[in-house]
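#struct-help
A.M.: can someone run this one for me? Single chain, 513 residues.
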Amino acid sequence: MFIFLHINADSSYLQFVYNATESPLEEVYDYIVVGGGTAGCPLAATLSANYSILLLERGGVAFNDPNVLLEENGMANFLQADDIDSPAQAFTSEDGIPNTRGRVLGGSSMINAGIYSRADEDFYNESGIEWNMSIVKSAYEWVEEATVTQTDRINSWQTSVKRALLQSGIRPYNGLTLEHLQGTKIFGSTFDRTGRRHGAVELLNKATKKNLRVVVHATVERVVFASNTSLGLSAIGVVYRDTNRNSHVARIREKGEIILSAGTLGSPQLLLMSGVGPRSYLSSLNIPIVYDQPFTGQVMIDNPRSLITITPPFLLDDIGSRVVGITKSFYIEALSGMAPFFSPVSPILFPDPYPPLNLTVLTIVEKISRPLSTGFLRLASPTNASLTPIVRFNYYNDTRDLSQCVNAVRAIGKMLRTLAMEKYKSMDQHGQRYFKFVGQALPLNQFDDEAMGEFCRKTLTTFSHYHGGCLAQKVVDSHLKVTGINALRVVDASTFVVSPGTNPQATIMMFGR
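D.P.: on it. Structure tokens below:
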């Protein structure tokens, strides 16, 4: 069991969190949830009201890590990302774009910017998932009472961004709201007024503790199946390893289920390693075929992001993000903080050339709402689940995505020409005022489609809002059941064909609930 010194929070869940090395080699539960992340934590807490639950998480617990918990240290999550044991795990897609994934109890909700905004209506209509909107509403509220802070008191940079969005025509002003509304708004945050994070892990405090066992540093290697003439093919358990490389087997009771909530990379990876995927691909890796599922690992999507970064002519200690501009085809948000020394994922924050030393920076970012370009996922190893799978998103493969980026960047250019942005300009020796860009500057001629498209390509980064790989109506049905297999579901963003709203964490936590 884990015992921590911690910062002012309800740590009840630590009573039922164990290292995998403390787990029995064989055990039985009603439900097994694979992945203690943004969806897995609320899912396990919910099920524990009536069933015995085993929640398996490959990462550790970051309850006493100030880089995870405190908003002022948020950039450090990315700057210290590695491929060994950091809460934010670094990887690079085959597109050459650095990216991250959560590797900690609470998942990506513990390493993100804390932005909390509910899904757009189109998301539900296009998802292929059967929703009861009354339950959706109550599930959001269940999440929000434990994790979300709402305040219309925002810092000076966010206030300027709000004014610039409105002055540049992204209207109306919708005030403080968690709903997805076109125009400009202030959203909720999983950082409270003191700057402390309340991620999905705290939803475990709502669990029935006698029914829930959370095991960390547990890397699930495969799902175990059985088949008989009356029931057909069924999932019956999982095999996982601890940090000592000891193998453990956990099984489910009759009428129980295994639920994969291992994330957009982890869930399709585990299905493939377990023999649920395209027959020819599995055969090429000598993986025994359990079920021929041609869509596992297919239709991988990531929302491309471009940005501009400026350094103001005065010191500014503002941190965080609280304002968004919402249009039908793109979203605009803003960040502020100290530019970092180099790290493997610096280009996520500041595309080349990135700043080599610490300085105050202000960033405006755009996100394409519904990219049409899709890619795929392949295994880095047929047997080693600790290796991040190989993924390609094919950013801008569909030229309509590039056109949307051009429109979004033009909107940022329009913001920079507003009165609200004037005070952030520097002055040269001739008295001319200008923005001091860090990295790529906006093209001088913002009506030149070719120049703007080149800017989008050069500044391409990611919000890490990737999704797909286990799509609803392809790999799972409208109730998230894996097609052709009993007692196996997927509940995470890998089932999504579009990313919900401006930022997905609100919807993913609701989804788990």
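A.M.: thanks! DSSP finds twelve helices and 26 strands in the chain.
D.P.: also worth noting: The CA atoms of residues 354 and 439 lie 6 Å apart.
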